[in-house]
Amino acid sequence: MSPTAEERKAAKDAEEAKTAAEEAKKKAGETPEKGSAKPTYDDWLNNQSDEVKTLIEENVSGLKSALGSERDARGKTEKQLRSAAKEAEGTAKEKLEKMADDLKSADEKADFFIAAQVAGVTNLKYAHIVATQEELFDRRGNVNFEKMKTDFPELFGEKPRIPKGYGGSGQTPPDAKEDMNAFIRRKAAGG
User: Fold this and answer.
1) Which DSSP string do the residues of 134-155 spell out, in sequence order?
2) Does one domain contain both 134 and 154?
């Protein structure tokens, strides 16, 4: 299922805050030194005035309460569907149970997407597929992102590390004199 309007708004607000932080850094002329840690939103927020911090905290708390009320409403809807399924018979009962299961699955997926974004996952859809297939969920529905990052670093925007000596590791540069034409000529000459 697609994210709710509140979830889309929260994601949009987070992106706008990130963009504002980057623009503020550019205006201030601050650039991270080479080798230093990447600047974070928290660092940017700590450098803001109390007035700006208050505005952001009010906005975030409003978004969190909207998200919480949306989750509560979806939970109530699921309970109502299950209650109606108990009273229904035949195909109506099956349809209501399926609707309740689909709603629960959508809620779990939305929770996963939120947690994955916080964990730094760059491809949420594939990460959810991997977490499901590799059984990285615990009993409470939480994901072991550390194991996911170890086993699937490409989901976090990292390139897989190539061991030394393997092709593409940069350990042995290709012979600059050898090209395809030279190879063909050598083979044609019987060499």
Assistant:
1) TT-B-TTS-B-HHHHHHH-GGG
2) yes
Whether the Cβ atoms of residue 35 and residue 58 lie closer than 8 Å to each other: no
Distance CA 41, CA 190 (A): 64
Residue scoring higher pLDDT (180 or 2) = 180
Instruction: Give the Cβ contact number of residue 47 at 10 Å.
Output: 15
Q: Which domain holds residue 173?
A: 124-191
CB 164 within 8 A of CB 135: no
∠ at Cα 46 (44, 51), nearest 5°? 100
Same domain, 85 and 152: no
Task: Answer for the pair 124, 116: CB distance below 8 angstroms, yes or no.
Answer: yes
Give the whole-angstrom CA distance, residue 124 versus residue 2.
13
Site of tokens 């990292």: 158
Give the pLDDT confidence of 69-128 residue by residue, as tens digits: 777 777 788 888 778 878 888 888 888 888 888 888 888 888 888 888 888 888 888 888
- Sign of the CA dihedral 183, 184, 186, 191? positive
